[in-house]
Amino acid sequence: MRKGNLIFCIFLIAVSAYAVLTATGWSFKTKLFPLAVGIPLVTLLVIQLLLMIGGKEETGESGAMDIDFTVDVPSEVARQRVFGMFGWIVGFIASVYLLGFPLTVPLFIFLYLKFQSNIGWLTTIAITMVTWGCFYLLFQSLVHIQFESGALQTWLGM
Amino acid sequence: MFDAFIEGLILVLQWKAFSLMLVGMALGFCVGLLPGIGGAATLALMIPFIFKMSPAEAFAFLLGMHSVAATTGDITSVLFGVPGEAISAATVVDGYPMAKKGEAGRALGAALMSSLLGALIGAVALALAVPIVRPLVLTFGSPELFMLSLIGISCITSLSGTTTRGQIKGFAMGLLGLLISTIGQERQSGSLRFDLGMMYLWDGLDFVPVLVGIFAIPEIIDLAVRGTSIAGDRPPENLSSGVMEGVKDTFRHFWLVFRCSIIGVFVGIMPGAGGGVAQWMAYAHAVQSATDSKERGGFGKGDIRGVLGPGAANNSKEGGELIPTVAFGVPGSGAMAILLSGFLIMGIMPGPEMLTKHLSLTFSMVWTLAIANVITVILSLAVLDQLAKLTYVRGGLIIPFILLLVFVGSYTANGQIADLIVTLIFGVLSYFMVLFGWPRPPFVLGFVLGKVIETYLFISMTRYGFSWLSHPIVVALMILMAIVIAYPYIQQRRQRSREPIHA
User: Do the Cβ atoms of B225 and A73 come within 8 Å?
Assistant: First the structure.
């Protein structure tokens, strides 16, 4: 965990330092605010990093005003589930890109319920159909959100 | 004055105006529940429908919708950790952990009742303040508004850690949020900043995909990891009594709710700050109400005061925002700017006439705010038990629907696939922030306030050079900011000095 935190801090320093270095080349008006914010940011992050390296950061410090992740699940299982969930999210976005929202919605709901949640066929199909209907009625017919067609349909000229 | 007050009530209670207010409320209820579809966007969509309405009907319709969206936005924040509205984000921080503890009913009861009290206080403030607020608004120029925004960020960052060192992370996150807000075209010179050669970034990052990613993705991941319902394996609370407990909590902490409502009104009056700031300032104030660092550490883990404060402020700020809009034609937020166009469509010019010729119409707005919220809360309280039961539905069943809400919501920002990618990127960032104990609220507040702060800073520098730093109100606000930052240290020191006495 400590190593991960160090890497995360270094990542934040790298991003902030990149922003500061990029901003230095801009005109005064353009760079004023990014530099006014970026320089103290890099400074604070470096102090934080040094505290962590020096082992001075208090362990077990629970950050106020934010949630804590569950610790009841074995770390290996937790890691698998985290990767699995991010996989579903990336898959969802890839599907929206390839097939568009209207097709992704029933496909995603069906696949997730059937293969991730292990719900029975009949229930899965029923929930998928109801969700698809609600999605169509609410977002397409009522709110008129314009969903782009997927890249696949565009390539196939559909 | 009293005649106009009663006349305003009669205007709202006329069957056509009242029916339109109910229609607006129904729309606002749905809009509030759906993440991404903001109250301001819906106001804009509904503007064309007011052409054939009388002014009282039009404002009953529009304000009924807008005020209710702020109230119901808290429901998805509590139930799923997904902010229904941008102004409901702070409710997630303690509302969702309460749902995870099996106290969704209590959190919802508290959120709705505090919203109602906030709305009523906002309405009263609108009624009382219109004639006297002019000097206050005119006293606050860009330098003062700049300092006020900085105080907003300082409030939240200074309370980000239970220890001194934790605050470094808080301030760093606030600054990171400010830095991220600079992405896109710089308003004064038109130069592009950090656009990475992508046209999508020219307008900067939209608030909704970032916010939804920051708050919803880590909650969804955690729900998937736990493999249980949102409320876990805890025995279902007595949901009805939970809701009533939340209602009672509102009155137990009445003065906190009152103070947070006043914060909401005050932030609402100040042009540009908006509900995004009001809720976090109120949240910070709720955290400050903790008597010691241990109690403060309970915030973010499901402290009822973390629900009450933002709930009250994001509704009271509606009344506050209406004050400069009605009295001077200076909209306090994007939604109020759209409402202002409603005034013009109705042939009404905001300003002194609203306090003389159209006083009854002004009071009809006060009544609409009050009546719409009372009806919504009463109706919502009746169905809260059922809504709270959703937190006991198996996680595997509910996750795909939450994901769907999250991504459809973020897609509504620009209608591009890039919105979804932004949500994912900030979701990943947020996941690591939670994992490694870097607080998210300061980041969000910095991101929300970034553009406003930069504009105020630029105007201050252009108009006054560095002399604005010596303006009396600016100096007073600087001192206030120093107190805000030092407050946790002072509190810690006082606590330490008390300890030997107790020992």
Answer: yes
Helix H or strand E encompassing B185: strand B184-185
- What pLDDT sits at residue B418? 92
**Is the pLDDT at A154 greater than 70, yes or no?**
yes
Sketch the domain layout of chain A as residue ranges: 2-53, 75-155
Q: Is residue B422 part of a domain?
A: yes
Min Cα distance A135 → chain B (Å) is: 9
Nearest-CA neighbor of B97 among B231, B234, B288? B231
Please, where are the H alpha helices in B202-328?
A: 207-226, 239-252, 254-269, 274-288, 293-297, 305-328
Which of B334, B283, B331 lies closest to B305 in space, CA to CA? B283
CB-based contact (8 Å) between B435 and chain A?
yes
So what's the pLDDT on residue A60? Answer: 47
User: Hey, which residues 94-153 in chain A have their CB within 8 Å of chain B?
Assistant: 96-97, 101, 105, 108-109, 112-113, 116-119, 131, 135, 139, 143, 145-148
Residue with tokens 């013009």: B344
Q: Assess B214–A contact: CB distance below 8 Å, yes or no.
A: no
DSSP assignment string, B388-450: HHGGGS-HHHHHHHHHHHHHHHHHTTTSSHHHHHHHHHHHHHHHHHHHTT--HHHHHHHHHHH
Q: Is residue B439 part of a domain?
A: yes
Domain containing B324 equals 2-494
User: Is residue B503 included in any domain, yes or no?
Assistant: no
Question: Which residues share a beta bridge with B184?
Answer: B193
Per-10-residue mean pLDDT, chain B, length 503 = 80 87 84 66 72 83 82 80 73 86 87 88 80 67 83 74 72 92 86 89 86 85 84 63 85 92 84 69 84 76 89 84 75 72 77 74 84 85 76 83 85 87 94 89 83 85 88 90 78 68 49
Residue of A nearest to B435 (CA): A69
CA–CA gap between residue A131 and residue B70 (Å, rounded): 26
Q: Which two tokens stand for residue A21?
A: 């270095």
Please indicate if any CB of chain B lies within 8 Å of the CB of A61: yes
CA distances from residue B84 to A9, A113, B76, B204 in whole angstroms, order as listed: 31, 24, 5, 22
Residue A70 in 3-state DSSP?
A: coil
- Model confidence, pTM: 0.79
Is B69 within 8 Å of B42 (Cβ atoms)? yes
Asked whether the beta carbons of B57 and B16 are under 8 A apart, the reply is yes
Q: Taking a C-beta distance cutoff of 8 angstroms, is the pair B325, B350 a contact?
A: yes
Answer whether residue B500 is part of any domain. no
- A3 and chain B: CB distance < 8 Å anywhere? no
Per-residue 3-state assignment (H helix, E strand, C coil) for B270-286: CCCCHHHHHHHHHHHHH
Contact A64 B172 (CB under 8 A): no
Mutating which of A62, A65, A105, A131 best tests the B interface, going by the most B Cβ atoms within 10 A?
A65
Could you report the predicted ipTM of this complex, rounded to two decimals?
0.93
- pLDDT by residue (tens digit) across B400-430? 988 888 888 888 778 889 999 999 999 999 9
Instruction: Judge contact between B58 and B358, C-beta under 8 A.
Output: no
- Say which residues have a Cβ less than 8 Å from residue B13's Cβ, sequence separation at least 6: none
A145: chain B residues, CB-CB within 8 Å:
408, 411-412, 415
Residue A11: per-residue pLDDT: 96
Residue type, position B340, single letter: L
